[in-house]
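Help! Submission page says 'invalid entity' but I think these are all valid:
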Amino acid sequence: MMRNPLLVPDLRELIQAGEMTALREFMAEYHPARIAEVVEDLGSGEGDAIFDLLEPRTRAEVMSYLEGETQVRLVEAMPSASAADLMHLMSHDERADLVNRLDDERVDEILRRLAHAEREDIRRLASYEPGTAGSVMTTDYATLRPDATVREALDHLRQEAPDRETIYYSYVVDKDRRLLGLISLKNLLLARPRARIDEIMTRDLVLARVDEDQESVAAKIEQYDLIAIPVVDAADMLVGIVTHDDAMDILRRAQTTDMLQFGGVSADREADDAPYWQGSPMGAVRRRIKWLLMLFLAENFTYPVFQWFKWMEGDHYYPALGFFTALILGPGGNAGSQSVGTIIRGLALDEIHARDLFRVLLREVTTGLLLGLSLGSVALFYTAFWRWMPWDIASVVGLTILGICVWANLIGSLVPLLARRAGIDPAGISAPFISTLVDATGLVVFYSLAYLILIRLHL
Amino acid sequence: MMRNPLLVPDLRELIQAGEMTALREFMAEYHPARIAEVVEDLGSGEGDAIFDLLEPRTRAEVMSYLEGETQVRLVEAMPSASAADLMHLMSHDERADLVNRLDDERVDEILRRLAHAEREDIRRLASYEPGTAGSVMTTDYATLRPDATVREALDHLRQEAPDRETIYYSYVVDKDRRLLGLISLKNLLLARPRARIDEIMTRDLVLARVDEDQESVAAKIEQYDLIAIPVVDAADMLVGIVTHDDAMDILRRAQTTDMLQFGGVSADREADDAPYWQGSPMGAVRRRIKWLLMLFLAENFTYPVFQWFKWMEGDHYYPALGFFTALILGPGGNAGSQSVGTIIRGLALDEIHARDLFRVLLREVTTGLLLGLSLGSVALFYTAFWRWMPWDIASVVGLTILGICVWANLIGSLVPLLARRAGIDPAGISAPFISTLVDATGLVVFYSLAYLILIRLHL
């Protein structure tokens, strides 16, 4: 998909005409994210040519908006010295991620050209366990001393700004880099120029531990509306910050992982979180087979139900019931999916709380009753007038659908609410799990009603 | 759930002992978000008491972290004059939302006490259509004139800062408030004090229209890593900004709405986006019934399949096949859910593109084949050795599960990819839709195999 259909053909023309000055002027006006889109859209030949034209600092900014594959392609095509210059200017978290994507040999060649401290910073950031605060944090933040004055602090920030990811929060640290407090640039601008930093800094910090799960860190940024959160190690020393834009990426990933869990792909959050193309189909099979097998075996517990009603085999209604079995399981599973989806969402948005258990159940069961009445009536008349079944079979079908809708809504709301009460993340409950539960129990309802209506009342 | 189990009992004690000074000192140290949690946890009596103790400006900040219900309760309990003071200090988008939650009469009483311009601002912000940029934007941003110098701009921001939601971006407007450019506080600090704003401002702006969908606005903030995005009206006049923290809330809502769509709750995104408790169960029924009915009717198209194989009724295998019908539909629907969930996620994260159609199909079909081989073998041996069915029935069950897994993965990946190609949002495709499709077609596979193996080859 081309995101800049008007821009790209113009640029192509300029590249083919070799109008490099015009191109440079063109690019100087654009947001780095837009330049990155253009580089992606133009592809390897022309995209690389555009990238080469950029100012070194712009180039470093554009890198952070490019896809991983493109970053690797561009860096592979560069001399090591240029790659080292680029890395020097890139944001610290982005270059650590890039290092993890490149060949070890190539990395050694590039890092050799950087200063010792910078090399160490890259190696350290690249070494944190994926999924932790350490793996997503950056080290290009601004620090202040507690005994500096506001005027000194502002001068210091002015010097540091070009190399810092954000200067809107400054972190106050002692000489051992222990985190003492934080001050926003807004408050620095408002303070008396002679005030000391430790008089005006905020001491009640929301912070993250370096080994903390990245989703928990992103949730804090969201909850407290932060631009960035400081990350400390076990000795309370400041080791990095995670910024709001990274938090947004983490939350997007996490919520799409919720979708996989909801779709019943696996019960292993870490495995589900992997990118689509990572690993072989065999890996996907290993993850997915667990749920499928479990659900298959669960479904088998309905066998006794069939056996119990085996005497119906001889009955002349039996073949018709065989068809309606498939017909009836559909709405139950679907109603269960709807209900569990609604409740998980309500819990995620804090619209529903575990204490609302009975209010929620009442509402969902009422909804199930109304759904069952509507759908059951449709099924009743459909069976009687379209498929020309006798009324007794039609009523078994209609009543089963009524019962199964109520039951599906009860199960679909009860299970996530009980999970939340028990401290289990309700996002781990899958729609297939609920459908299977409803299917299995729905069969009992169906055959019991069939027994009652067809055998007890009529025969 | 109490989020501050250590803090709350201490505070209760201080309130009961009437230690107001100690309480005030206590609260002064905490982040407004944490105070809001404490107010919620303490509930109506003690929570209100704590809220009353706060400094006016802190009170306004705490408001933005409170739930809607609590905000209304606190404001209802206040004299109109205090409510007006509070609104004066609240962030502009928050107070417009509050006005939409209060009684009209109460709103009139409060607004009467505010200055004309402020009243107009609140009325205007409260009047935008829900779901648009206008409904989530705020008007407390900082503007600069293009002919101001950097020194003048910084002085101006210093004065404005206390009343602005953010001063990290300043918007440059002409005398008709038409948006000319933007400058970050970082660049202001770095610029020569005598430089003119229009020499150093950014002109390539990423902006939002006032009637633009809020999800599209949030997506721009995410894509370009912005702290805020300017919102303009049809005449290109700046009318507000949407900030990164609001974008996060919008994305969270949008992604949980995706979950409802995936769960097959309705096909109406706007209806699905409503809060859980909004509307009656009847409304929920109206939304949910559409899908259930459609899927029910779709499932009915399998009737001809049954009729086609009606001759099997007389066959002695038939009753056993009735049971296995239910058993076989489960894995097909579940594998379909897994596959469609995986693909929708890959598309949402930009890991899969529409152009990858064949690569994705190949991968999913391979996965389906491997899943089918594993699950089919389990089913074969289960049917033969646990349920003691003859080998021919066992092979029908095993082969059907193999076929249905491949088919489910094909459908589950093909449908979202084709939807994306056709320009339809794949997040609207529901797991129940895919399951029903797989169920219906799965029956054909099952009965065809049964016919082939049981009747053609053996009888």
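Support: the input was valid. A stray whitespace character was the problem, and the output above is from the cleaned input. Chain B has three domains: 7-129, 136-249, 301-456.
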